Amino acid sequence: MKKIAFLLLSIVALSACDKAVNKYYCYEPVYTDAGTFRTPAVFESPRSITKDGNIYFFNDHLFVVEPNEGIHFIDNSDPSNPNNVGFLNVMGASGLSIKDNHLYITALVDLVIVDITSLYNPVEVKRLEEVFPTALPLMEKNYPTQTIDKSQGIVTSWNVVKTKDETNPTPIWTGCLGCETFALADASTNSSPGGTGVAGSIAQMTILNNYLYVIDNNQLRPFSISDPINPVEGTSAYLSWNTETIFPDGNYLYMGTQTGMLIYSTQDPAAPQWVGSIEHWRACDPVVIQDNIAYVTVRSGSMCGGDINQLDIIDITNKSNPVLLESYDMTNPHGVGIDGSTLFVCDGKDGLRVFDASNPSDAGNHQIKRFSNIQATDVIPYNGVAMVIGDDGIYQYDYTDPNDLKLLSKIQF
Q1: Which pairing describes strands 273-279 and 287-290: parallel, antiparallel, or unpaired?
Q2: CA-CA distance, 59 to 299, in Å (whole number)?
Q3: Of 223, 337, 354, 388, which has the fewest CB atoms closer than 10 Å, so is most exposed?
Q4: Residues in contact with 87: Cβ distance below 8 Å, sequence separation at least 6, in sequence order
């Protein structure tokens, strides 16, 4: 599938393709001057969706990220007839979160805050520049990069070029390059308390109470948004270098990594603390939580490494000692979602799989339905409607009767 997100990676390590003898492929940075990059967000007429970016649900509207371009606003009050109503042009856009009347957008190195009190007349009210100074656009292949010169501007894309290097280096490993889980968007919940929105399981930013939490390279960075347009940063927590996703539940944050799941407490919201973890073999690792159960998809392929593809079901009653209850073989699972007793697994080219999770540890033995016509990558199950990202569009299914799921609509990419 096309990749949909942006990486927060260290620039220091990315400098390995500047010398001469053996030809190989390399990433050449494309720069945009700061003035152009920071042109204020503008709401425009609707555009066709051309890339499979993240989706977010808030107040009967779907927000669809067009990677590096902006955000589509879709009236989804009637899921059988969604209406594309406008496009918010934000250069470098990669993800979003919403709390009350404020839309928080990650735009590569910047954090953009937009007032959406008047939803169809959004206004940029604040831009925090260089908040994420090491943020770079997605690299789909594990190629080395040319040296980045920030004096030339902000890196907004890459050119793939043939180069020479007398040392013929191997590509530099800088994380799960090419994994969709580097998306920056609010993590999924099954309701929207406190005026926050709902997103999928593939996320690197979430809002919990009055804090915005962002995975930035190997740090968990908390920002108080009690004053919505003046975020105040708290104390960062250092994480595993391969942390990919984040999901909030209660007073805890659950983070998927390439080697397992981390659990952090937000008892002190400005300084989250590690309380427990559970390991697995190396693979990509989205996670969602319901009650005292974590549902984790573990995926090989892409640049994540590993050779396992499975659904793990984990008891998190004891946060300091989570216990694996059961694992079920999958084909190439991506995003996962749970609402009540209905579990959704986006199993890549094997489609969307729906399970009865009345008994969580036995869920993998009770498949209700499989939609094989969709290459599913993430899902938002909310209020009887499952919003699913496919490789060619957003599919919406009515699951009010889980034994009789019905396709309501498709938004074509």
Answers
A1: unpaired
A2: 32
A3: 223
A4: 43, 44, 45, 46, 47, 66, 70, 71, 72, 73
The token duo for 260 is 């397992």
Query: First and final CA of the chain: distance in angstroms?
Result: 12
Residue in this structure with the two tokens 């060619």, named with its chain if needed: 392
Average pLDDT of the chain is 84
Report pTM: 0.84
For 62-87, b where at least 16 C-beta lie within 10 A, e where not — what string?
bbbbbbbbbbbbbbbeebeebebebb
3-state secondary structure of 219: strand
Q: Counting beta carbons within 10 angstroms of the beta carbon of residue 10, is it exposed (0 to 12), middle (13 to 18) or buried (19 or more)?
A: middle
Count Cβ neighbours within 10 Å for each residue of 333-342 and write b for 16 or more, e otherwise.
Answer: bbbbbbbeeb
Q: What percent of the chain has pLDDT over 90?
A: 57
Return d(Cα 27, Cα 148) in angstroms, integer: 10
Give DSSP secondary structure letters for 5-56. Answer: -EEE--STT-----S-SEEEEEEEEEEE-HHHHTPPPEEES-----S---EE
Nearest to 125 by CA among 35, 195, 229: 229
The residues, ordered by sequence, that sit 6+ positions from 291 with a Cβ below 8 Å of its Cβ are: none
Query: For the chain, what percent of residues have pLDDT higher than 70?
Result: 83
Of 413, 298, 405, nearest to 352 by C-alpha is 405
Distance CA(272)–CA(14), nearest Å, equals 30
| CA atoms lying within 13 Å on the CB side of residue 148 | 26
Task: Quote the CA–CA distance of 65 and 26 in Å, as a whole number.
Answer: 27
| Cα dihedral: 39, 43, 45, 47 (round 10) | 70
